[in-house]
Amino acid sequence: MKKTALVLGSLVLISFGLVVSGVGGDLFFKAFLAYGKPAGVFSPDNAVAAPDYGLEENWAALPTKQDPADLVPTGIDVLSQGGHPVDVFFIHPTGFLSAGSWTSPLDKHSGTEENTRWMMANQASAFNGCCNIYSPRYREANIFSYFGPLDERDKLLDFAYQDVKRAFEYYLQHENQNKPFIIAGHSQGSHHAQRLIREEIDSSDLHQRMVAAYLIGSIVIPVPPSLFSAMKHITPCQNAEDLGCVVAWDTMPEGAPALQRPEPSLCTNPLSWQVNQQRASADLNNGAVAPTGVLNTDFGSKTDRSNNQVFDALAAPIKATTWAQCKDGTLFVSNNPGEGFNADAMGTYHGIDYALFYMNIHNNSKLRTRRFLDEQLVSGQ
Predict the structure, then answer these.
(1) Concatenated DSSP letters for 69-123?
(2) What is the gyration radius of the CA atoms in the chain, in angstroms?
(3) How many other C-beta atoms lie within 10 A of the C-beta of residue 174?
(4) pLDDT of 309-363, one tens digit each?
(5) For residue 298, which phi and psi values (nearest 5 degrees)?
(6) Which domain holds residue 285?
(7) Mean pLDDT over all residues of the chain?
C-alpha cells in the first residue's frame, strides 16, 4: 500500500503540481522542462498511425474481453460485463511521460500501456456496477504538453481528441445499440470528455441518452461556467439523482490552497452530490478503495519500460474514510486519510480523486442509471 503514494497524482508530480503551486517559472522547472521534454516541435506526420477501433487490441476495456476494468473491490458483487442495459465510455488520463515523442506511440509493451491498465483497474472499474465499460486506447498527449505554451498544448490535445472522437463514433455505430450511456474520465480524459459532450452530445439527440458525465480531476483545465453556457441541454448536476448533467471535482488535502485556474471550476461534492460549500460528513463516504499497483513515473526518460505488473484484485472498501467540502472550486478532504491514500510529492490528491470516493461513484452511477431506466419505462421509450 505504501507504494501507492505514487498513484496517478505522480503523473502530474511535476507538471500540474508546479503549475498550480505557482512555481512553474523557477529555474528548476525550466531546467527540468528543457531536459525532459520530447525533442523538436510536434507534427502529426511524426505520430504513429491512427488506431483502428474495429480491432479489440485498440480498446483498453471492452465488455467482451477480460481486462482490469472488470475488477471489483473485495466483498462487492456486480453483474458480468455485457449484462448491463447501460454503457460507460471512459476516457483515461495521461500515462505517457517519456521523452520519446509528443504523442503516445501505443506500444502495448510499454510503461505507458501499463499505466493505462492501472487506470482501468483503479478508475474505470468504479463503473462496472452500473455499466458495460468501453475505454479506447488513444494517441494521448505527452504529459509535457501541459508545460508549454497554451497553443502548443491545445494542438496536442486536439490531435489526441480526434482519436477519442473516432472511438466514440465507432462505439455508437457498432457497440451501443441505442442504449443509454455515461461519459467518464480523469485528467486529460476529462479534458477530452468536455469537448465530446459539447460538440457531439449536447448538439445532437445523443443528449437524450446521456445518463450523466463524471469529469473528474480536470485540475489545470477547469470545468467552467462557460462550458455550460455554450450548451443547450447539459447542465451541472445539483443532486444525486439528476440526469443528463455533469459532476466534477479536484481533490486537495485540508490546509492546502485552492487550485488556481484561468476560470472558475465546477465542484461537486461526491459525498452529497450537491454543488455548495457545505461540509459533508465522513459517514456519507460509502467506501474508499486503495489503488492497486503502482504507476510508471519515470518523467522524461528516453525509455518507456513496463514493470510487468498484473492487476488482479482490488482491496475491500474502507467506509467513512474522509469528509469532503468544496471551497472556491476545489474539493477539500481530511489530511492523511489513511494508508494507501497519500498526497503526491506536490501535496495534491489528484491521484486519488477516484480512490477516496470509489464506492460513492460506484453507487451513484448505479442510482442514476436506475432512475434513467425508470423514466424510460414510464415514458414508454
Answers:
(1) GG--BTT---PPTT--SSEEEEE-------SS-SB----TTBHHHHHHHHHHHHT
(2) 19
(3) 10
(4) 999 999 999 999 999 999 999 999 999 899 999 888 778 999 999 999 999 999 9
(5) -85, 75
(6) 2-379
(7) 91
